[in-house]
């Protein structure tokens, strides 16, 4: 599902790019040019996201024992950087035109074409964010958020350019492009910061960790308790690690049965989680290790 979503983003981005380039060529508007320029970034980002999603789905191998999940975060960081680069290019064009603004030609046809491209982006952005979140895909979510900023950009461009045409204030066109650039920089930073958290082995959400502690406590019967719970999230994969204290004379088979029960309960809450449970004899707790989560 995630791979198909990433793949479909490429032709959709190309269609929207063609529409926005046509709108810019018809009008000569720097604001519409800025919108088209951001869509070029969409095409590059969609291609990078597809490549990252495919790579991240590769199984673990001799050189990557924990899989290739973090490739999606690399793609998302790249997309954030591209968003910022697009904003800088837009700002340069806007500043060049702000001293000698010109009214766009055939504005209403250009705005209608641009609006149609924006509608396509809006529908696809909501799809990517919803399904990317459902399947824990940072690259797909980042692509959706990027498209969402493109939708906001298109709305701002359409409203602003319509005002410029109706009022005769040609300077609104480049000023609007500058506002678009600032908004894009902000969204680019959000994408980068979110992805860097994933690369830095961010833990599960605090609320999920609290629920996880409850599940472990409810299914650890027979043990003397657990401690040192650690979690990390890498794209669609979640890694959970903790120590379980067992009575000194408990057999390996009995301790293993408790671990199986814990793993089944945890995977019902976090499907596909990779779980590592270290079993300690009671004496470890007596030597200063507190038996707690």
Which key features would you list for this structure?
293 residues, mainly alpha, Alpha-lytic protease prodomain-like, Alpha-Beta Plaits, 2 domains, three-stranded mixed sheet, 9 helices, elongated, disordered C terminus
Describe the structure.
The chain is mainly alpha-helical and 293 residues long. The chain has 2 domains: 2-199, Cation efflux protein transmembrane domain (Alpha-lytic protease prodomain-like), CATH 1.20.1510; 206-286, Alpha-Beta Plaits (2-Layer Sandwich), CATH 3.30.70.1350. It is 70% helix and 10% strand. It has 9 helices and 3 strands, in the order H-H-H-H-H-H-H-E-E-H-E-H. The chain has helices at residues 2-27, 30-56, 71-98, 107-134, 138-167, 172-199, 206-219, 252-269, 282-286; strands spanning 225-234, 237-246, 274-281. It has a 3-stranded mixed β-sheet. Helix 1 (2-27) packs antiparallel against helix 2. The longest helix is centred in the middle third of the chain and has 30 residues, at 138-167. It is found in: Membrane.
Short summary:
This protein is mainly alpha-helical. It is 70% helix and 10% strand.
């Amino acid at each position: 599902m995630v791979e198909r979503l990433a793949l479909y983003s490429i032709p959709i981005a190309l269609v929207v790019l063609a529409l926005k380039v046509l709108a810019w060529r018809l009008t000569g508007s720097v604001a519409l040019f800025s919108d088209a320029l951001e869509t070029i970034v969409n095409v590059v980002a969609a291609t990078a996201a597809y490549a990252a999603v495919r790579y991240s789905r590769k199984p673990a191998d001799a050189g990557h024992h924990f899989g290739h999940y973090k490739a999606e975060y690399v793609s998302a960081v790249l997309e954030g950087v591209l968003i910022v680069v697009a904003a800088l290019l837009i700002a340069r064009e806007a500043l060049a035109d702000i001293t000698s603004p010109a009214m766009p030609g055939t504005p209403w046809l250009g705005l209608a074409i641009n609006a149609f491209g924006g509608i396509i982006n809006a529908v696809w952005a909501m799809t990517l964010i919803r399904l990317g979140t459902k399947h824990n895909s940072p690259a797909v979510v980042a692509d959706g958020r990027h498209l969402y900023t493109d939708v906001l950009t298109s709305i701002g461009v359409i409203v602003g350019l319509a005002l410029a045409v109706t009022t005769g204030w040609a300077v609104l066109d480049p000023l609007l492009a500058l506002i678009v650039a600032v908004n894009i920089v902000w969204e680019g930073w959000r994408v980068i910061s979110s992805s860097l958290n994933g690369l830095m082995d961010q833990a599960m959400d605090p609320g999920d960790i609290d629920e996880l502690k409850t599940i472990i406590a409810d299914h650890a019967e027979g043990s003397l308790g657990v401690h040192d719970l650690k979690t990390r999230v890498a794209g669609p994969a979640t890694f959970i690690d903790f120590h379980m204290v067992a009575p000194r004379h408990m057999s390996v088979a009995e301790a293993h049965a408790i671990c199986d029960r814990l793993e089944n309960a945890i995977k019902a809450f976090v499907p596909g989680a990779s779980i590592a449970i270290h079993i300690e004899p009671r004496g470890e707790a007596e030597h200063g290790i507190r038996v707690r989560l």
